[in-house]
Fold each of these.
Amino acid sequence: MSLIDAYGRKHDYLRVSVTDRCNLRCIYCMSEEGIEQISHNEILCYEDMLKVIRTGTEMGITKIRVTGGEPLVRLGIVDFIREIAALPGVSDLAMTTNGILLPRYAAGLKTAGLKRINISLDSLKPLVYNSITRCGKLEDVLAGISAALENDLQPVKINVVLMKGINDGEVEDFLQLAREKPLHIRFIEYMPIGDHDHSYGNHYLPLSFVEETAKKAGLPLTPVPTYRGPGPADYYTLPGGKGMIGLIHAISKHFCSTCNRLRLTSEGNLKACLYWQEEKSVRPVIDNPDALKALFRKVLANKPAEHQMASDGRCGAVQPGTMRSMSKTGG
Ligand code: SAM
Ligand code: SF4
């Protein structure tokens, strides 16, 4: 029983947001005060999340990514990873984290069955990192990256949201980092997501900027068409590089036609597209596997061909109130 939508796209990837809370306040993700948090009892319990994941695996989901908010701030996260890893049908289990708490958790996550990890890091300069995250310390995330490498959570992928006037001067430094360390450095286009007041219009830069910078720096990017992760990044090698470069053109060359993912939000809503209002609560059907399967099919049946950022050219305008921030939906 495959999860195939009206456009013939097969879905085998479920992203699970375990919390809307976070220990950072990134400028592109939430406002300084943070998001309006939902109460603890509105967050789906792990047991119910596992029911959704188990049902998904019976329908063809094989890849799970645990995310948030910041997944490592939710208590019991290591045991949750262990329970997902034990489910038959899960062949890939990954996490996206800001890395701050990884020195504490990396070893336990590895033992529990986490295979690989994505860590967000938008600047290699302590002050810039602190101002992007509004409170983070660069040394903490660098220690988190080292812990991920030491515990073989490979490949360790670094997510860098490219922002004009903020970190565009550091592209070459990130390229050098991918030469020196076995990291996949993935540049992501800034998306107008969330209804907080951010200055998307001033800071969006297409990723062609990374290719141009690489060429000027004498580090031309060579495509690796044979390498594809389960996600949307196009991968490149660098001359003499231990790592790789990934480009995620979320907007300029969006990848909706090959989208293979569904999302479960922290309060328990199934969602077929990040940039789409429609989502359905799993709660009324959580103890009825057949009804849960029907809900998966219903959500998938309404999945749009492409996200609105792509289809109506509204890249410069955030529609107030129409979207939840990435921290709530799970990036
Ligand atoms: N807290 C974790 C982290 O930061 O990695 C996981 C959740 S975060 C919402 C997931 C990813 O979404 C991060 O890599 C972050 O950079 C990305 N993200 C959040 N808001 C974004 C935006 N407006 N545009 C592009 N990427 C965004
Ligand atoms: Fe937190 Fe991740 Fe959003 Fe930054 S991007 S505020 S770390 S959830």
Note: The chain has one domain: 11-329.
Amino acid sequence: MIVATGKSILNGIAIGKIKIYKEPKVEISEALIGEEEAEAEIARYEAARDKAIDQQNALYEKAVESAGEDSAEIFSVHAMMLEDEDLSDAVCEIIRGQKHTAEYAVKRAFDNQAQVFAEMDDPYFKARSADIYDIEQNVLNILMGIDTDSMQGTEPSILVAEDLAPSQTVRLDKSLLLGMITREGSSNSHTAILARSMNLPALIQCKEIDDSWDGRMAILDGYNHCVYVDPTPDLMETLSARQKEDERQRALLEELRGEENVTLDGTKVRVYANIGGPSDLGAVQQNDAGGVGLFRSEFVYLNSKDYPTEDEQFEAYRLAVETLAPKLVIIRTCDIGADKKVDYMELDPEENPALGFRAVRICLTRRDFFKAQLRALLRASAYGNLGVMFPMITSVREVKDCLEIMDECRRELEAEGIETGHVETGIMVETPAAVLCADELAEMVDFFSIGTNDLTQYICAIDRQNAKLEPFSDTHHPAVLRAIRMTVEAGHRHNTWVGICGELGADLSLTETFLRMGVDELSVNPKSVLPLRKEIRGIDLSKEPSEGTIVY
Ligand code: PEP
Ligand code: MG
């Protein structure tokens, strides 16, 4: 058995034979043409370009159906790039001035343009270089009469390729596609975005792919970022079972997709998703979450080797807010410290890190650091529906300071002529102090989000990192449940809506308890959204609590 690793862009299992997908080699002649042939070559180029534009427009229509409008947009961008007069002028110049064939001129002119994009610093324009190569191949295939549609074989398989351009990806016959593996590719490339929206397990940057895999049995394990070629029978059995479980979940998903999160007596609850960054947005959409209740922004810091700049942060937040608009996306300001550390912040070791210098305590001490994040968030707010919440709050003073700094950032941006939008503000209720001051805090913000992970740790004095304490820990501890009820009641006294974003929100044995307390929103990992919806739809709050329900 061969085990090769890569980077998974969609969790899931694909089992089947491998098909190596190879573009035919295009040999382009460097021979010169006669003076009198130039106009005919230009006409050939223009006809091929026009046909390529038609094909890109047709791909757009196809992609809208299979992957949605946002993912399809790249093909209208391709069509626009092909219509670009400067690019066509460059091709015609090479044909007319240098006496080369249309194929040669296309290769030279498009390669030059791709190179220009590749040299740019801006990651968006850098990525456009791959698009130029993609449309170049498209025009060359037309000029050389190459049919790329017949390269997928005849039976459903896991496609293995050096790289796949967006136009190749969308042209693939989905009924013959179990999964995709490429040697190149980046997680934010359009190909990856398309694969995600087509809901296909896919592995990129798998450097060990080999032509000898063609036709061999394989398992693409998106959960573990690897592919097993010639898997053992035991592994086959284990991962087939996992795949069946995924299918069961998908069936559940189909049944409940688009349905409301409403109890039998008509009480509506918001069910949102918790995410760690833009790479989880696909999961939010696939699982039909109503929004994002917790975007743990510290992952943006943890994934970075140095302080992420305001622009880098803005890109990450804008992507989330804009992709999900008009749904609400609640981004939590940086919750670094305790178990989440980054070297570049040079935080001193502490005796009691969970009770130490973390979250807003760092932000309010290092104001420039905090302001870079708040400015990025405010800029992103112009692109959709944003909520911002502050973690580890223990006092009115802290919330006041956070809101003041946010106002200061807004004023600065306005003075710079940078657009901002409306932002709902909230706090995490995850310390006993916040619960006990909930009435005062509720007057200051639009919403509360209860972080049951830390709240349990601090109420029960049980270090959440210490596995030895598990026997002493009770996730349904009455003190924690009472604290949740007190928070909901305090919030509602001041028209502040209250959600739960800690792990307890996904505990189905407590769903009825939370609804009876009046919790307005539950934010859970994306995979728990639909099981939770199912649970909610079976609850009747007008009747006596169902058996076993803890009532507070
Ligand atoms: C919590 O404490 O419940 C929470 C949601 O935040 P985190 O787990 O990131 O500390
Ligand atoms: Mg927490």
Note: The mean pLDDT is 90.
